[in-house]
Design goal:
Blueprint: E1 12-14, E2 20-22, E3 31-35, H1 42-54, E4 62-66
Parallel strand pairs: 3-4
Antiparallel strand pairs: 1-2
Length: 72
């Protein structure tokens, strides 16, 4: 696990549209990365909704979810 404020490793993945994206593309913006096992499952949906609900409380932090699912 990374410590808060440490640099993340280089991550290069496909987004939900099949477009290649990297964490580096967010520049110096803070990023909250969370992992979930499968999209559209009750637990994952609840987790995503809770993160959406606190988005306004964590400032200009990007929220990025990663799962092993194929892009939609």
């Amino acid at each position: 696990m990374l410590k808060a404020g440490s640099k993340a490793p280089k991550i290069d993945l496909l987004d939900q549209n099949g477009k290649r994206t990297t964490l580096a593309s967010f520049g110096k913006k803070k990023i909250l990365v969370y992992f979930y096992p499968k999209a559209d499952t009750p637990g994952c949906t609840q987790q995503s909704c809770l993160l959406r609900d606190i988005a306004g409380d964590i400032g200009r932090t990007a929220i990025v979810g990663i799962s092993p699912d194929s892009p939609a």
